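Practice problem. Given the sequence and the SMILES for flavin-adenine dinucleotide, write out the predicted structure.
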Amino acid sequence: MEQLMKKIYTLGVEWEQNCPLSKHSSFRIGGAADVALFPKSSDELCKTLSFLREQEIPVLVIGNGSNVVFSDAGYRGAVVFTGKCRNIKIENDLVFADAGVLLSALSSAARDESLSGLEFAFGIPGTLGGAIFMNAGAYGGSMSDVCISSWYYDLETGHFGESFGDAQCFDYRKSVYQEHPERIILSATLKLKKGNRKTISEEMRAYWDKRRATQPLDLPNAGSVFKRPEGHFAGKLIEDCGLKGLTVGGAQVSQKHAGFIVNIGGATCEDVKRLIEKIQTTVLQQTGVKLECEIRFL
Ligand SMILES: Cc1cc2nc3c(=O)[nH]c(=O)nc-3n(C[C@H](O)[C@H](O)[C@H](O)COP(=O)(O)OP(=O)(O)OC[C@H]3O[C@@H](n4cnc5c(N)ncnc54)[C@H](O)[C@@H]3O)c2cc1C
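Answer key:
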């Protein structure tokens, strides 16, 4: 390990040994990673990934940690955080951005250029890379509507590649990257439409107000726990089964929105898993609907 740390030091990328992952997750859950790296540009990100590949170190790439539950045991290997790779370039109706750009910054930049299409993303607390990986969406929009291509680095082959934003790349809360975790998104191109700046701004504000009114933003969480089952809303099913407030350890079904689990203090990954199992069993027994997890256990 000491040898490895020396090599990481010479890489010239910001890093931290024994990094508590809870610090980097919106759920505030997770043990320590052996090492965490924080590249500051796409070039640094590529250099970091290529170095870790050569050293045969297990790698986990994380954006803003807003859709994940890290293991209580942490991660044996290197966790690379993309959040400092934040370059955005706009040319006409095309937006070119690094994987680490926050969606709110991206939609604000688009609004400033009177470009419409990313209003839905304002308020989703993730990065562009995480949002493409998850095909994040809200209020009728999703990344698949705007992402025309993404560049990736393949940790298995060491080659670069491009995925196009067609039906083969995306489905509901799914992308090709979930089947290929070795492909690390470096940047993406989005195609937007010319719009009216005031209208775009108002729509973003309305979505934000709606989030504040309906979501438990005052407590650590990882967004909607379950995917929307066809013909239903997960939150409504859970509420109708009387599960609001159900608690395991420090994990609780939110009183404000039953589709969210909140960390009311000291929740562990195991607490969340056990609570999810209870919810799934009860909802299946009472309604016949199988709830599938949207949040990712890592
Ligand atoms: C309060 C709240 C509200 C939310 N609302 C919504 C919503 O309305 N709609 C919605 O869809 N989601 C929502 N989410 C969930 C989450 O914000 C989104 O899924 C977001 O897109 C995740 O981005 P991230 O950067 O945080 O990804 P992370 O949580 O960091 O990672 C998610 C997954 O993507 C992978 N990943 C991340 N970056 C890369 C990369 N560069 N290359 C390859 N793989 C990568 C990770 O390994 C992980 O498996 C919400 C979450 C919270 C806490």
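Check your answer against the key. The radius of gyration is 19 Å.
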